[in-house]
Amino acid sequence: MEHLYRLTLSCPDRVGIVARVSNFLAQYNGTITEANQHADMAEGWFFLRNEIKADSLPFGIETFREVFAPIAADMNMAWQVNDSRQKRRIVLMASRDSHCLADLLNRWHFGDLDCEIPCVIANHDDLRSLVEWHGIPFHHVPVDPDNKAAHFAAVSELVMAARADTIVLARYMQILPQSFCTQWSGKIINIHHSFLPSFIGAKPYHQAFERGVKLIGATCHYVTEDLDAGPIIDQDVMRVSHRDTIEEMVRRGKDVEKAVLARGLRWHIEDRVLIHGNKTVVFE
Amino acid sequence: MEHLYRLTLSCPDRVGIVARVSNFLAQYNGTITEANQHADMAEGWFFLRNEIKADSLPFGIETFREVFAPIAADMNMAWQVNDSRQKRRIVLMASRDSHCLADLLNRWHFGDLDCEIPCVIANHDDLRSLVEWHGIPFHHVPVDPDNKAAHFAAVSELVMAARADTIVLARYMQILPQSFCTQWSGKIINIHHSFLPSFIGAKPYHQAFERGVKLIGATCHYVTEDLDAGPIIDQDVMRVSHRDTIEEMVRRGKDVEKAVLARGLRWHIEDRVLIHGNKTVVFE
Amino acid sequence: MEHLYRLTLSCPDRVGIVARVSNFLAQYNGTITEANQHADMAEGWFFLRNEIKADSLPFGIETFREVFAPIAADMNMAWQVNDSRQKRRIVLMASRDSHCLADLLNRWHFGDLDCEIPCVIANHDDLRSLVEWHGIPFHHVPVDPDNKAAHFAAVSELVMAARADTIVLARYMQILPQSFCTQWSGKIINIHHSFLPSFIGAKPYHQAFERGVKLIGATCHYVTEDLDAGPIIDQDVMRVSHRDTIEEMVRRGKDVEKAVLARGLRWHIEDRVLIHGNKTVVFE
Amino acid sequence: MEHLYRLTLSCPDRVGIVARVSNFLAQYNGTITEANQHADMAEGWFFLRNEIKADSLPFGIETFREVFAPIAADMNMAWQVNDSRQKRRIVLMASRDSHCLADLLNRWHFGDLDCEIPCVIANHDDLRSLVEWHGIPFHHVPVDPDNKAAHFAAVSELVMAARADTIVLARYMQILPQSFCTQWSGKIINIHHSFLPSFIGAKPYHQAFERGVKLIGATCHYVTEDLDAGPIIDQDVMRVSHRDTIEEMVRRGKDVEKAVLARGLRWHIEDRVLIHGNKTVVFE
């Protein structure tokens, strides 16, 4: 895989941002392999993502950060530059349902998901064997309904110990405490099994069945304090009909869920998702 | 176009319904060109639609009704049989937006929508020339915000005078009175510009934009007393991204709206939609 | 899972087929849970699939076959009736690519694919560990380019020993000998990584890239003597753009391939696919 | 509609292109409202499209061209800059089928297609009334099978007289002479009623029906000397099944055809399509 630096930034829109960034890169002879920009005219906000060949630059990622910092400061940029060789550390959280977890693990195992998975945390023990076959530590942290705080304390400790930078809720069926959501803001990715904002909360396929919709869907989004209301990364749907029972919807919906989650996570890993307020800019 | 009888029925499920119906048709040598059935196991309800070649039977539609009535009564069927040569009479209602109306008129004009359109009713006069070019009477019935009842009384009269059996709200932006909805239950088709139940009510594209969804959609449904909550006939979606302004969503959404409305209306015309409670069985 | 008998049949179209079949079932008090029919008017051919609750009938599958045989003979039916409890025996064949194989194994493992998988046969040893973790025997049968016959003889023996009724080519990259295709006619399912008939043969993503298409796809079909030309069970596509390299197409196409193969195989297992000439009737 | 300049260019890839272009724009205080770039690493070719607010620049389009020319020359750019207020002049060509033509005319009529349509040319007279209602001149130029050259000579003259910059074949069923294709290279847009490269040539729905595909599609492409083999702008598909006759495929396919053509034409009008060899870069 090519060695790249990924620069992403957002700032108030004004004339000359691209000139400034591209001059900076051209000055050091940096080869841009992919470039995306977006100007939100209504918000007056500008977004940019550049992929640069690491070995076209005369310095490493630390120096990159140093020399770019003054430009960023001058333009009030929220920004980061990441090294594609420093892999993201993604902790997966699950419950009993295997489809999303198994799908992510397979993609990772066979080289289609470029990250580290330091561990999997689940509130049931069912998926231990699946996870351990992949050589990944599995932590079973049960939930005591009378003391959920203990569960989340243990989870929090494991996540810290794993030096995670991202948490993926791969059909982990618990609602996270607000403090945890705030602490990990923009770093927790959930897959919700409906096309949000339809069918927020529990049992969305049951809700969909009751309403008699002709499409079911899934939504990959960042978790915030508000249930199922965080910034949406991606969504997709599939057709259903009067023939489909709830069980059939649940079964068929799995294919949408895993596809949408894998796509959203991949974009996140490749720094393609910029959060702005409660929305995302996705440079896919 | 082939001359067909379209038999649709629903009734409590039990052994022998299909045998009874197919024996009836076989006894008269009726040729079935298309047959669909559905047993809703949870509800214990059975649905059937048969298309029969009219000239394979030794009698006309009236006699069909007479000879089939005892079977239907015996099985507690809600049923009807229609003659494909007796075209549906569809009144279209519109406002200022042309896309759905123009699309339906074109399909009708060039033979892809097999019905009569006795008239178009609109609360603005903008689309008169479009409608009249097709040789269809256009009634401009303005809405006085202080006396909406007068508008709906006039509409009601025009619909009755047109001997309509179906009303299509082709982006007609008024909320119908409850009494009208009740009177025309199962006979008013609306196109809502969102994937319901998301974004009920006014300005769904604005709501979609605010929420930052990655899909916009449209829903074709029967109108009931509850706003945007009636039985759904069809839905579809299209992708949007951070680049799309509200205006762009509105523009692009038109293509979904007109496709979904045309499809749903066609199914209705061909007796493919059976309403049961707040859901539909669609034998497409 | 419910205990069902699945009756499928096809025969020359005539009046009274449905009456005959439904009378037969009603006479024995058989409860039909799902019924599909299709009359191909151009070909004059009739197709039917019924699912019947096994315990609603007073006899087992063998007696079912005996008592139905005279009706079938009388109407020149090609037919079969299967017992949902007698699971299909599916041999999977693979090469080095894991995505389709891993996907099918996971679905099977977690209960979403109702069949037996007596063994996996591959011409490379790479996927042994994956397969064996699922507790399924893995046979590595290498291909000697100078003596392919030996490979296919060994494969044939293994398939027979496994008492397979269906063979799935889950990205098995060898062309099967004609005699093998003939022997297993209608029982070998392949996934081809293009929307056939575009890009027959080797390296379809390369062909797609060269042509500059904006959609890539996958096709699940029965294997016949003619390469990639057998009856199509299902197809699907996804969008690509000028940004996608061949490698990216290959990576992204995997999601379509595995979804289409899983869907097609499921329909096959549930007796939903009837082959007629070089086409299929799919009662999904 | 906002007043914009649309700059598009392609050239051999090298360091500093974006810097050069963005410096140029920043120097004159130009506000970029949309920016897209693409580096084709395999071909070593670079593509760019910028939309600039016209009134943010201190000069008009002619001066823009003058001051940008030296940069373009220095970097061996193929380039153009267009003024959104100088509308494209699109000649539509049709035969008897109305769906694509009616759809484009409606979009134009109601403001969703920002161009001039100086005239419609057809080899049959059927659609005259439709076209003339929109206030657009209609030219009926019949085809004499024994003297097609006369037809094309007349067409050529009309297109020149209309000062067209683009020709759209809206289901115009004639094969254009090679010389005409060469003369209008990159300026003739066709809608082909299949997902190319499947089903090149005549009667693609018949070919699709024969092959038993489960998807039908449409392809919008630039016309070249090779039949149905020019650079693809856009494609889409829809599901079909064993129930669909050829007539039904033809009817349903119309919706894909008109959607794909309208989308492709819109991108062309907005200078979003850059041709490179036999492929397109589409900055949608």
UniProtKB/TrEMBL annotation, chains A, B, C, D:
<keyword id="KW-0378">Hydrolase</keyword>
<dbReference type="InterPro" id="IPR044074">
    <property type="entry name" value="PurU_ACT"/>
</dbReference>
<keyword id="KW-0658">Purine biosynthesis</keyword>
<dbReference type="Pfam" id="PF01842">
    <property type="entry name" value="ACT"/>
</dbReference>
<protein>
    <recommendedName>
        <fullName>Formyltetrahydrofolate deformylase</fullName>
        <ecNumber>3.5.1.10</ecNumber>
    </recommendedName>
</protein>
<keyword id="KW-0554">One-carbon metabolism</keyword>
<dbReference type="InterPro" id="IPR002912">
    <property type="entry name" value="ACT_dom"/>
</dbReference>
<feature type="domain" description="ACT">
    <location>
        <begin position="6"/>
        <end position="86"/>
    </location>
</feature>
<feature type="active site">
    <location>
        <position position="228"/>
    </location>
</feature>
<comment type="function">
    <text>Catalyzes the hydrolysis of 10-formyltetrahydrofolate (formyl-FH4) to formate and tetrahydrofolate (FH4).</text>
</comment>
<dbReference type="Pfam" id="PF00551">
    <property type="entry name" value="Formyl_trans_N"/>
</dbReference>
<dbReference type="InterPro" id="IPR045865">
    <property type="entry name" value="ACT-like_dom_sf"/>
</dbReference>
<dbReference type="InterPro" id="IPR004810">
    <property type="entry name" value="PurU"/>
</dbReference>
<dbReference type="GO" id="GO:0008864">
    <property type="term" value="F:formyltetrahydrofolate deformylase activity"/>
</dbReference>
<dbReference type="InterPro" id="IPR002376">
    <property type="entry name" value="Formyl_transf_N"/>
</dbReference>
<comment type="similarity">
    <text>Belongs to the PurU family.</text>
</comment>
<comment type="pathway">
    <text>Purine metabolism; IMP biosynthesis via de novo pathway; formate from 10-formyl-5,6,7,8-tetrahydrofolate: step 1/1.</text>
</comment>
<dbReference type="InterPro" id="IPR036477">
    <property type="entry name" value="Formyl_transf_N_sf"/>
</dbReference>
<dbReference type="InterPro" id="IPR041729">
    <property type="entry name" value="Formyl-FH4-Hydrolase_C"/>
</dbReference>
